[in-house]
Amino acid sequence: MERDSSNGKNAAGDGPLISFGGTTYPKGLGVHAPSDLAYHLGGAAVRFTSLVGIDDFSARQSAVGATRAKVYGDDRLLLTTPTLTAATGPVQVDLDVRGVRVLRLVVEDANNRTSFDHTSWALAHVTVG
Known about the structure:
Blueprint: E1 2-3, E2 18-20, E3 23-25, E4 28-32, E5 35-40, E6 45-54, H1 56-61, E7 67-73, E8 76-80, E9 91-96, E10 102-109, E11 118-128
Antiparallel strand pairs: 1-4, 2-3, 4-11, 5-10, 6-9, 6-11, 7-8, 7-10
C-alpha cells in the first residue's frame, strides 16, 4: 500500500501520484490486487468517500488490468464495484458508515491475471460527525 501515490513496482514510495484519465489526485491510497486494508473508525465516522479504479500508472503499462473493489463495515459488505478497468474509469464511492467500528477496503483481481492490477482509492476520506 502506498499513501498518497499509486502503488509502484518494487519498493515503498516508488509510485507516481494517483491519476485517472490524466487528472491527478494529491491524496489517496494506492494498492495492487489482492489487497485488504482495515481502518479502525471506532463508530465515530459518518461517511466514507473516494474514487476507486485502475489508475493511469497501470493503464500506461497494459490494458489488461481488471479488479473489483469492496468496502466492508464491521464485516458487513457495504459496496461491490463493477469490474474496474482502465477503460471504465474510476467509480465514485459515497457510503454511510455511521456506527462502523472497522472499515475494510478490499481490492480483488477480476480476470485471473494479477498483472497490471494497480488500483487506487483517490481522495479516500472519512468524515467524522
